[in-house]
Amino acid sequence: MRWIWKLLPGLLLLLGLAACTGNDLPAATPAGFVTPQVSAAPSAVPPTPRPQNSSPSPAPTLGLQPSVTPTFTLQPPTPPACAPGVIEPRQLASEHLKDPLKYLVYLPPCYDQNDQRYPVIYLLHGQTYSNTHWLDLGAAETADRLISGGEVAPFIMVFPYDARHFDPPPVSGFDEAFLGDLLPAVDGEYRTRPERACRAIGGISRGGNWAVHIGLQHPGLFGAIGAHSTPVFSTDSNKEIREWLAAIPDDEFPRLYLDAGTNDRWLRYTLVFENLLSEANVPYEWHLYPGFHDDAYWQAHLEEYLRWYAQAW
């Protein structure tokens, strides 16, 4: 019987190892959190492939198996689904306009399910269009997709209607109503972030003219200006534009995006404005793409526009 005593230390060692490698109960995890899973670091040497039609050899047993305790992971509560962004029609009276200023407001997904504040993009339509111009190009659907996919931070969009869209700035009154009435109304009704870094203005064609006209004269209000297929107002002389650019402090110069199609009928005027920016040695982005002065061109670059406005947020 002395051989039993010789084997006893080895048996005790094996039983101790079995107890250390058994499945213990998971550590207590607060409700609503997932127990973190840790993946092993990849090995520098790939494992030796198993020969075909072979199976692993069973591990030797001593007749004593470690007890197995079932494990489980607590799952977090499912967050409420966010509905797509909504469009709200609004209008306000202004002493600068004959008729009320109509505008549409896009509120991003989950706007009503939280109390956070949002950056704002003011997007102006082209001549002969209405304030649905950007929406007809797909602005709401594109914003929904980018925001819901986590590709950009959520933002509000405002689409004002320039009803007198053949009048130049000196007689239009639109810019005075925009600055004096629309901005305070939007900031007062919606949870916006009113600091200049979180407010952008942009437009298509005539709307881009307005973005340049308003944005360059009020750089303290806008952190970004988008001018898409913009010929600039004929009443905004080169001399005035040079003066506006020179008056902007270096630390307040807004991000500036300028683009047009190679076959745009107003391209020569856009190039004059681009040359003024270059002469002034100010920072700006200039993009010349294939295309015309039409919806097909603007729709093709719509996502790029929205990404650019939101990239600083």
Give the helix/strand layout.
Blueprint: H1 2-20, E1 86-92, E2 101-107, E3 120-124, H2 133-136, H3 139-148, E4 156-160, H4 169-172, H5 174-189, E5 199-204, H6 206-217, E6 224-228, H7 238-247, E7 255-261, H8 267-280, E8 285-289, H9 295-300, H10 302-310
Parallel strand pairs: 3-4, 3-5, 5-6, 6-7, 7-8
Antiparallel strand pairs: 1-2, 2-4
Low-pLDDT stretches:
1-72, 74-79
CATH topology-level name = Rossmann fold
CATH C-level:
Alpha Beta
Strand residue content: 15-25%
User: How many structural domains can be distinguished in the coordinates?
Assistant: 1
> How many β-strand runs?
8
Class from secondary-structure proportions: alpha/beta
Give the CATH architecture.
3-Layer(aba) Sandwich
Helical region count? 10
Structure description:
By secondary structure, the protein is an alpha/beta fold. It has one domain (86-310): 3-Layer(aba) Sandwich (Rossmann fold). The protein is 33% helix and 15% strand. The chain has 10 helices and 8 strands. It has helices spanning 2-20, 133-136, 139-148, 169-172, 174-189, 206-217, 238-247, 267-280, 295-300, 302-310, and strands at residues 86-92, 101-107, 120-124, 156-160, 199-204, 224-228, 255-261, 285-289. Strands 1-2-4-3-5-6-7-8 form an 8-stranded mixed β-sheet, sandwiched between helices. A hairpin with an 8-residue loop joins strand 1 and strand 2. The relative contact order is 0.11.
